[in-house]
Write a structure and sequence with these properties.
Length: 299
C-alpha cells in the first residue's frame, strides 16, 4: 500500500496542518516520510499571510526542526530542499515523488471554500492530484492541531465496479487502523440528473425512472458481495444506497457517520480541467472539512 509518504511544506502553518496526519500514517503503516521544500522562482516572502521559505539554507534548517519535533522516535524521516528555483512547484512535487523519493502517497493541505480555483493553496494540490498518478491526501487545516485518528472510512462507489480499484487501498487502511469501512452509492433522482442523462429523462421520464431503479438493485447486489468479503476479512463494515445529488449526499453522509476519511477513486489523468470540473470528489471537497484521499484509477 503506502510505503513512502511525501509531505511538501512551504514554511506556513497552513501547510503544517498535514503533519499530524502524516505522523499517524507513518507510525501505523511503518512508512518512511520525506519532507520536501521547493524553492520557487520569484517567490513572495509571504504565503497565506505567513512566512514563505525562499532561502535553501533556511529551508534546510526548518525541515530538520520539523522532522525532530513532529515524528515519534522510530519513524524514518528525511528531508530534501530542491534548491534550484523553479516556476512550476506542482511539477516539481510530481517529479520528486516519481523520480527521487519514489513515494506512493503525497499529503497536501487545502484551504478555503470559495470555489475550486481558490480551494487549494496556490492551485498546487489541485495540479498535483490531477497530474501525478500518485494517491494524494488532501487535508483541511483545523483551528487547533489535533492528533489524527482513523476509525471510520467512507468509500463512495458507483453501482457497478468502475471505482472498485480503490477498494484494496480502503481494505488495507481499514486493517492497519482497525477502522470501519462504510460503503455509499448515490443513485441520482430525476431532478439531479445532468447533461445527456437529464435530456433523456425529460423526453422519457418513465424509462429514466426505471433505469434508476435498476441501478439501485445492481448496487445492492454489488455491495452485498463486498460486505461478505469484508466480514470474511474481519473488517467492520456497512453499506448504504441513497438517492440525490452525489456530492451533497456524500458530504452529508460523511458528517452524519463521523467519517475520519473519505476515499475516492478518481480518473485524474483525464486532464486538469476535466478532472476538477466534472469530479464529484472536487465538489465534496467544497462541502466538507474531512480529509479526502484521491486514488487514481487505471483507464
Amino acid at each position: 500500500m503506502f510505503n513512502h509518504i511525501l509531505v511538501p511544506l512551504d514554511g506556513s502553518t497552513l501547510a503544517e496542518a498535514a503533519l499530524p496526519v502524516a505522523a499517524a500514517l507513518a507510525q501505523t503503516l511503518k512508512a518512511p516520510i520525506t519532507l520536501l521544500h521547493i524553492i520557487e522562482q520569484d517567490a513572495s516572502p509571504e504565503v497565506h499571510r505567513d512566512r514563505h521559505l525562499t532561502n535553501a539554507e533556511e529551508a534546510e534548517t526548518y525541515l530538520a526542526q520539523i522532522a525532530q519535533l513532529t515524528f515519534l522516535p522510530g519513524t524514518e524521516v528525511d528531508w530534501h530542499v530542491h534548491s534550484a528555483a523553479i516556476k512550476d512547484v506542482a511539477s516539481g512535487i510530481v517529479d520528486h515523488s516519481a523520480n527521487e523519493s519514489r513515494s506512493n502517497l503525497i499529503i497536501l493541505t487545502s484551504h478555503g471554500n470559495s470555489g475550486m480555483r481558490d480551494l487549494f493553496f496556490g492551485n498546487i494540490a489541485q495540479e498535483v492530484a490531477a497530474a501525478s498518478g500518485t494517491p494524494v491526501l488532501l487535508i483541511k487545516p483545523k483551528p487547533v492541531s489535533t492528533p489524527f485518528h482513523l476509525r471510520r472510512i467512507l468509500v463512495p462507489l458507483d453501482n457497478e465496479s468502475a471505482h472498485d480499484q480503490a477498494l484494496p487501498f480502503a481494505k488495507e487502511m481499514a486493517t492497519a487502523f482497525r477502522a470501519q469501512l462504510d460503503l455509499l452509492c448515490v443513485i441520482p433522482t430525476l431532478g439531479t440528473l445532468s447533461g445527456e442523462q437529464a435530456a433523456v429523462s425529460n423526453l422519457l421520464p418513465t424509462t429514466a425512472a426505471a433505469y434508476l431503479d435498476i441501478a439501485e438493485e445492481i448496487a445492492i447486489e454489488h455491495f452485498q458481495a463486498h460486505l461478505d468479503e469484508f466480514q470474511n476479512m474481519g473488517i467492520a463494515s456497512s453499506a448504504e444506497i441513497a438517492r440525490g445529488d452525489p456530492a451533497s449526499v456524500i458530504a452529508k453522509n460523511a458528517g452524519k457517520n463521523k467519517a475520519d476519511l473519505i476515499l475516492f477513486g478518481t480518473h485524474g489523468r483525464a486532464g486538469l480541467d476535466a478532472f476538477w470540473n466534472r469530479s464529484i470528489a472536487a465538489s465534496v471537497a467544497r462541502k466538507t472539512n474531512i480529509p479526502i484521499l484521491l486514488i487514481p484509477l487505471q483507464e
